[in-house]
Design goal:
The complex is a heterodimer of chains A (about 700) and B (about 220). With about 700 residues, chain A is α+β, with helices and mostly antiparallel strands. Chain A contains 18 helices and 26 strands. Chain A is elongated and about 230 Å long. Chain B has 2 domains: about 50 residues, no CATH class; about 160 residues, no CATH class. Chain B contains 7 helices and 5 strands. In chain B, helix 1 runs antiparallel to helix 3, helix 2 packs antiparallel against helix 3 and helix 4 packs antiparallel against helix 6. The chains are: A alpha+beta (about 700), B mainly alpha (about 220).
Amino acid sequence: MSDQGPTGPARLDVRPVKQPIWRRLSLVWLVPVIALVASLYTAWLSYRDLGTLITISFENAAGVKAGETQVRYRDVTVGEVEDVEFTHGLNDVLVYVRIKKNIAPYLDDDAQFWVVRPDVSVRGITGLDTVLSGVYIQGNWDTQADVAQYDFVGLETPALTLASQRGVRVTLRAADGSALSAGAPVLHKGIQVGYLETPQLSANGSEVQVDAFIESPYDRRITTNTRFWDTSGFSVRFGTGGVSLDVNSLASLIEGGVAFDTIVSGGGPVRDGHIFSIFDEEEAARDSLFADPDAETLQMAVLFEQSVSGLAQGSEVRFQGIRIGEVSDLNAIVVGEGDSAEVRLQAVLSIEPSRLGMGADASPEAALALLSDFVARGLRARMVTGNILSGSLQVELVQVDDALPAIVTLTSGEYPVIPTTDSQISDVAATAEGLLSRVNDLPVEELLNGAIDMMDSIEALANDESTRAAPASLVALLDEARELVAGDDTQAIPGDLRTVIADLNAIITEAGEENIVGNLSSTITNTNEVAANIAAATEDLPAIIDQIEALTAKANALALDDLVNNASETLAAIDQLVSSEDAAALPGTLNGALDEMRGFLAEVREGGAIENVNAALAAANDAAQAIEQSVETLPALSTRASQLVAETRAVIDGYGERSRFNAETLQTLRDIQEAADAVSALARAIQRNPNSILTGR
Amino acid sequence: MQVFDLGSTGQVAGLITAREAGLVACQRCGQVHHAATSHCKRCEAPLQSRDTDSLQRVWAWLIAGMIAYIPANIYPMLLTSTVVERSESTIIGGVIELIEYGSVGIAIIVFVASVLIPVGKFVAIAYLAISIQRGSRRDPHARHKAYEVVEFIGRWSMIDVFVVAILAALVQLGTIATINPGIAAVSFALSVIFTMLSAQSFDPRMIWDKNRANG
């Protein structure tokens, strides 16, 4: 439209009025302004909530991640790790943490930080949640805002006591820290009421100190009279009281631990930092309750000449059986000078005056005076066996009535010396050795051989057929004997017996009067003479034999064969009878018969025959005496009989060896001999083993 | 059809603009009206030959978009919490993580959509606005092309926001795994919206005015 015609109206120069800038401003500008304000506000909020930056240095920051790992205080997140880097020299890991502003003032010099990781110990498993969620840093500080700090050194192990826990922290002293470990339980009547912190050497290195934290409300159980003792592991004591085994909780078995108890009342309350000693054993701790461990003790010495092996520091010192102290030292000293010098073994006794019954506040001097008085009256020290198995010894003060006069001397210089007397040491080893040697000397092998032989004999006997057969025969025989005894005839015997005994009595009396024995003797003499005559007569025998042969020829003609045959048969029958088992079993049967007889005699006694019997026995006694007298002549008689037999044999021999009669006779005699032997063997067998009759073996 | 050589200045002898012809075109429907007409006869949209407040609004939206873009990069885009861990990832952090995990392709997509395009838009819009204010005559065709690209591509920046929105809606498994949008997601969405508004506020007709005025 720029080339409009000149005829038109003059071009109007229309220009908008310059408006003030605020009128020309678009409302749209509100948007960036609002955005800016919002951004600034957000930024300011962020800054305000940014928190305080602190640094914690750890030796090991495993698992700590920038931007992820949280810092927690009593399980509430109070900050976050912002950065993790190394210190100069790469010694430690520096962790930068943003802590909430309102928390930061409490982070003063008592603040502790440690990394919580899963931990498996005997007390349980902790930090298991960190397996999934990753580690976090646990903070621990008290509720007092002090001078805030910004640089901290993290702990490598979790702090055991949280600042929020209430309780009392006491310091324990022990000579040996091997039983103490951080976290080990503190037990009271078997339940855990606290725990130990990290043990540390004391400044001079002479002992171990460890802080123990006892949780509220158990801390009220602790007074100045409380005693702590070591409960670590299990303790086996092999003392004079025998074997004693103490086992505490599993945790204390592995980690160690201490226990305490307050038995006597009256102790004052304790505050943090109170120092207690740890006793090695509960017994010692309890003992110390009744005697002040710091009380003065009387030191005395005993000089022993023999070995003190078995005596040790801590061995008991007993006075009439009551413990009054212990051996505090053992050493060797030289007594005397020059040639008379000799080495003695000195046991230093630490005697507690209060245990001598002198009251709690008795002084060592008073105790010494008392003991000196006792020594003058015969008190002596000696070693006695405390425990026969362990061979431990203890020192005993005993009253010796016939003691040589002695007094408490000061010869060894340092300590007053109590005189000694003979020690009573039962050496279990020596005794046991003697016992063993005796056992060793026992003739065990011979005994065994004898036993084996006996067994063999018994076996042989038992296996013998005749032994097995005996019972049956015996039973049969017994039956017969019983029948016999039960028979009316037998029952009638007592009456007859009485008359017989009376007759016998008379006969014996008569025999005694008429000197029958003497007659017998003369008779035998006569017989002897007859035999001699026969021998003499036999000298003429050849002639006679001729006659006899003639006679025999006649006899042969007289059917003598039949006679001899009959005799033979008879002999065979006799033989059969004698060799029969029944005959062999006779002795046993006789026993039974005798038993029956015994019963029978009892009946007889009841039957009133006893007086007669007594009389008869008296007569029999007389007769027996007479027989005894005559028996004295028996050897001669026997000799004569022997001669007679020999002569008879000679006579029989004279009949000719080939004589059938002769052979038969000899055979018979042999059979009789065998039968007698068999009876004899059976009798011996039964005598050796009477039971075999009953058991059949 | 006559073909004009627009040359580097875009000036063509004997060619007039609608404004010079006393005409105004509706920006919405394209209907041409007389210059005095205030509203479109067809769609009733307000008619303006030149939007005099255009640059103001461009700058305002642009600045707002840039402000919003700062927290979008500082604050975490995604809050991922699982049983094992809890992680927050910013845009750039996410890209770096993706590269570390070897997903270079996805990292490039995220980087282009979340960083390259928004920043490119800021630069492009600012350049266009400054060039108009200074009355630059340089290559109006190229500048017009740049404007069209900016307007077209701007909406694709929202791809990030959509991803976050979908993830946050899908992954809600209670304590096992949860994904929540962070502050950055909102900031980024706002930034994209502001930038799009900024681009829309721009009146591309002004690119040509300077050349005409001095021609």
